[in-house]
Hints:
alpha+beta; 139 residues; three-stranded antiparallel sheet; 37% helix; 7 helices
Amino acid sequence: MGQTVRDVMTPNPLTxxxxxxxxxxxxKMKEADIGPVLVLEKDKVCGIVTxxxxxxxxxxxxxxxxEVKVADICSRDLVVxxxxxxxxxxxxxxxxxxxxxxxxxxxxxxxxxxxxxxxAEHRDPKSALGKISQAAPNN
Length: 139
């Protein structure tokens, strides 16, 4: 049997409530040294917000970060996967939807996140993207 998304995903994804401010989300990102955070409404995944979303959809538009809610800028048209989905399915979804990250959800609850880099590292660790994904982050 082929490997599943569970085998390559980052478990226990960082989450933030949709009602949180983008400052709260950015602080979580900084503490965890990550870019994406899953957005929750009533404990169910309803979106994803990235550091780039904060920069482009709020800060660059001159909006007050202390007042902007995550729900106002997050991406809500989500494509999610079950943890037992195949890696091939994840690759096809990323390609079809032109996304770099897919939330992994089990019964509506976030259990992981799989990124393009995770798949590259798994499929071809010697590729440029695979090597970049394996490298330590530069802070």
